[in-house]
Amino acid sequence: MKQKLLLIFGLIILTFSSGKAQQLITGKISEKNGSPIVGATILEKGSSNGTSTNGNGAFSLKVNKSKTRLVISSVGFQTIEIDASPGTEVSLVLEESSVNLDAVQVVGTRSLNRSATETPVPVDIIPIQQVTNSVGQVDLNQILQYVAPSFNSNRQTGSDGADHVDPATLRGLGPDQTLVLINGKRRHQSALIYLFGTRGRGNTGTDLNTIPASAIDRIEILRDGAAAQYGSDAIAGVINIVLKTDVEKLTGGVNTGIYDKGDGKMINAYANYGVKVGEKGVINFTVDYLGRGKTNRPSVPDGPRAYFGDASAQNTSVFVNSKIPVGQKSEFYFFGGYSYRFSDSYAWTRTAKIDTGDVNVGTMDNPRNVKEIYPNGFTPRIQATINDASGSVGLRTKFGAWDADFNTTYGSNRFHYTVDGTLNASLGVSSPTHFDAGGFGFSQHTIGANFTRNFADIASGFNLAFGSEFRRDAYDIVAGEEGSWKQYPTADNRPGGSQGFPGFQPSNVLDVSRTNIAGYLDTELDVTKHFLVSGAVRFENYSDFGSTFNYKLATRLKLSDAISFRGSYSTGFRAPSLAQRYFNTTFTNFAGGVAVDQIIANNESVIAQTVGIPKLKQETSQNASIGFTAKPASNFNVTVDAYLINIKDRIVLTGTFSDQDDAIGSILKKMNVGNAQFFTNALDTKTYGLDVILTHQAYVGSGRLTTSFAGNFNSMELGTVKTTAKLAGKEDTYLDAREKAFILASAPKSKLNLTLDYKIHRFNTNLRLVHFAAVDLVNYNYVINHYSAKMTTDLAFGYELSKNYTLSIGSTNIFDVYPDKQDPFNTETGGMWDPVQMGSAGRFYFARLRFKF
Fold this sequence. Notes:
Layout: H1 2-17, E1 23-30, E2 41-44, E3 50-52, E4 58-63, E5 68-73, E6 80-84, E7 89-93, E8 123-126, H2 128-132, H3 140-147, E9 151-153, E10 168-170, E11 178-182, E12 185-186, E13 216-222, H4 227-230, E14 237-243, E15 251-259, E16 266-277, E17 281-292, E18 312-326, E19 330-346, E20 353-355, E21 363-365, E22 381-399, E23 402-420, E24 434-455, E25 462-478, H5 482-485, E26 510-528, E27 531-542, E28 546-558, E29 563-574, H6 578-582, E30 585-591, E31 594-600, H7 606-610, E32 619-633, E33 636-653, E34 657-658, H8 665-670, E35 675-677, E36 679-700, E37 703-718, H9 731-734, H10 737-745, E38 750-760, E39 763-772, E40 775-778, E41 784-787, E42 790-800, E43 805-812, E44 844-852
Parallel strand pairs: 1-7, 11-14, 31-35
Antiparallel strand pairs: 1-4, 2-3, 2-5, 5-6, 8-13, 9-10, 11-12, 13-14, 15-16, 15-44, 16-17, 17-18, 18-19, 19-22, 20-21, 22-23, 23-24, 24-25, 25-26, 26-27, 27-28, 28-29, 29-32, 30-31, 32-33, 33-36, 34-35, 36-37, 37-38, 38-39, 39-42, 40-41, 42-43, 43-44
């Protein structure tokens, strides 16, 4: 491998040394106030020939043509094009960019005349295509995990459905407490509810990996409570995904990679092309395929799992984004996509023999195995087929001075289980080894009308926005085939159902829905050119639990061009998901390697009502933040934001209550229930922290060095567990130490990211260091599993082979760092590591070839 890398680097160096005589165009790029713009990009249009400005804003560019066209750009400024000839000196002043791209408003503000840098709340703008050009990650969750410090996502293993849909959090809150938008419109959530051995237990979330990175122009992350602006789920913040609108340009690529251990092979192929419609219209298409093989990091011999690692997955996506002018003042738009994923993961191993615990008896045949089928035991494989579809249609138009947007959006996510390499022990030797285990689906239909107007003659500008929204959510569960869930009569009372994942039973089947209607008012007043205040109110009424009213206040004070202060306060809410209200199943759980059959009861069920579990109500929040942005020099930017988030009545999945419980055991026995868990509003939490982002650009030699540091410092406090009257005094079962540790582990104390990106001529290199804080989990013996702080290092090299092709090679986690090893009999996963920090797959090598025409 080292010899290959040396050969590639040698070829790159030889390429640098070649070339023919060229002539110079020189110049200087500056801001309106005369400050030089460091790191501005100057590119010869239609080629890869370019350079960037140095610390004085000056540049020199070698060209072959007697006359050429230059494209000058810099983050935060408007891009311009000019004609230039060798021997001339170009002096340009760039205007700050105030209107965002393609009339898609920046998340966090409804003003169409405000940039992300001018909002009174922190908004991160992540140019996905620039990021993916120099990193090894290709799926959206993993890209954001290593780019955005306040974002956390870990691949799961041995966690049933979570092995196929990664849970993701913002600022350490629940997966369902972050709202996801596409082009400013609400994105539907996944049908999956996280349950076993995973972060976000008892939560639903949005499956970001159904959206290919190749279809995305940029991602805006609003790190502030925004329920008053956007509705339910926006307690932690908002992630707005803005799709590409490129035209008459074909881009694509092939990415491939493999882990150091020789597994987890990855292949990603994609293409994007946009068709111009008239002068201003566009239809942009993306096709993307991502295949990923399993990894296997087995634990100790005879451990709970013979196979331990990430699931394999094949994901195919097709996305479209369009806008077509209608007359002079209107445009029709449509965007959406379809994603199909088949994923396959290893469950816990069923051994051929088990220890009876009796020294006189020793071992015996495992009643969960049929030795005639699997003489040496077996490891079931849980498979998921996920179909995700969405479409959003709308019309933007003008009524006098008012901008209007009429929209309808539909999204659907269907999750279906099959279990392979398994059996139904109660069927004995006649048992199939493959079962259809059923599944569930979620759909959401939203209709909205939004109006906004800017009044330039009120103070220094006043923006008024209002609108209404109607939404219908639907959720259903479908049963698996009979053999996947039924226990057939046997002389030795062997367990029934498909081992690894028992199917949904006819008694679990349901089809439910709800509606809600909302109205909002959003205002922004520039009291002066330096002082902004904004406010928003929102009312929503749900058909299943009632009404909620929320508000938000925010302000921004610009002391000078170099420093501004900002702050906000808001109330928020999150409506309980339909899955939290209605999900129910009978399953096999593992505690300390021992199989236990139990149920999760529907929150509306007779069982829940009889034992006194109250009906779910909304989670409510208070969110406060204060911070500042500074620009000590033209090439140096600083943002610091502190936050406090109080959440009341968080929904959790309780611990397990058995039929031996002295309070409700007799009730469970009468209902033929051995062990039961429930969804309930049981906990208040307080989360506070600090986000710090520093960016610096400098001219080093003939190249440009961009340095960025981003850090999130976070802490969460848990309130007293709120039980029901019948279960008073059982707080340690209602939400035990293990479950509390999982909640806290979703809010790591810190995550720090230092990235250095150097570009010189056709060559670029990217070095990234990510520091993950220590994490503590509580094992089955109620002893702490401590995972110490770790740091990973990623390194990538890129070279522009021509104006059409670019090659990148590199490695993520080049020092092969793993979390601290634990006892596999006392982890949630049955392996040597829980799903913490950087994952447990190790060093990864990758190569990427990109093209553009």
